[in-house]
Each structure stands twice: as C-alpha cells, then as structure tokens.
Design brief:
alpha/beta; 4-stranded mixed sheet; 3-stranded mixed sheet; 27% strand; globular
Length: 171
C-alpha cells in the first residue's frame, strides 16, 4: 500500500513567539537537546554547555488566515521551556477566531518566575481568558481553587478551555 503525503501538513522551522523576527537566539544544551530554550537571561553565548543557534521566530497567528480558522475547532499543546505566555500571546487572534478550543500548557513556577511574572499573577492572567483545569495526582484533573494548589506545585500541565466551549456544554 502506497502512503500518500498529506498536503495539509507543513513543517515550519521556527520558534513560536509573540512576534515575528528573522533571527532569534536559541540555546541548545550539549547534554540534552530536548531542553533547548530562547530564554538566555542566565546563559551566555560563549557558555560551553550550550550551542547557540539563530532561528526565526513566528507568531502562530501568522500561520493561519482568518478565513481558515473562523469558527473552527482547535486543539493545541504548548511546552516551550518557559515561553508559554509568549506563544499564547502570539496566537491570540487564532484563539479569538476558534470556537471552541482546548489546549494543554506546561506550567513551571520557576520558569514563570524567571520571566519576571509571579506564578499567581500568571495564573490570574490565564484565568481571565480561559477556564483552567490543572492535572493533579495520578493525572486526575483537580479544582484550580484548591487552597494550596499553587504552593504545592512546581510543574504541571494546565488544561485551557475556551469560555465559549464551557458555555456550549452548559446548554
């Protein structure tokens, strides 16, 4: 059986961000490439633990025409080593057009704090745009309003759900 290429899939070699830029520093650790990051505030270009690559950055909004996404459903996953807020900002238009959408975003308190935003403030920002559901123990979804949730977490995944989706479910 011959496998056909899907014309709807396009590979884009760039860093997802809140802005389009022709050259962005991307730090790749020699030890483990899976933890590469554009966050260089604690890194130096001449640090021998990292290779520095120059790559373009793009917004996810720039990849889709408004007509493609108008009232389309959207499912996404973001795990970008502390740049989640930038990626979400760069897909604001996409999220506004898509209805409904559900996404999973990695949340690390130290990464958020390292970007100069208190973890509680970041959660507040997310709550202003999405319904939020964190994964709890054994992968169970738990209530975000649990009194000690934030103080007991250093890393977890958050499920982001469009407010329009939660309204659709209620009817």
């Amino acid at each position: 059986m011959e496998r056909k290429r899907n014309a709807e899939i396009e590979l884009v070699c760039a860093v997802a961000s809140d802005q389009n830029c022709s050259s962005t520093r991307f730090f790749v650790p020699h030890e483990w490439s899976g933890s590469g990051s554009v966050r260089g505030e604690k890194l130096e270009e001449d640090d021998d633990k990292f290779a520095v690559q120059r790559v373009p950055s793009i917004t996810l909004d720039s990849l889709f025409a408004d007509s493609q996404m108008k009232e389309a459903s959207l499912l996404f996953r973001i795990d970008v080593e502390g740049q989640e807020a930038s990626v979400l900002e760069g897909m604001k238009g996409l999220l506004d057009l898509s209805s409904p959408f559900v996404g999973i975003v990695e949340f690390k308190t130290d990464s958020v704090d390292g970007q100069g935003t208190a973890a509680a403030d970041y959660i507040g920002l997310l709550r202003s745009r999405f319904e939020l559901y964190p994964f709890g123990k054994q992968g169970l979804i738990q209530d975000l309003d649990a009194s000690n949730w934030l103080s007991n977490r250093s890393i977890t995944d958050l499920i982001l759900v469009s407010v329009s989706y939660t309204h659709l479910r209620a009817h």
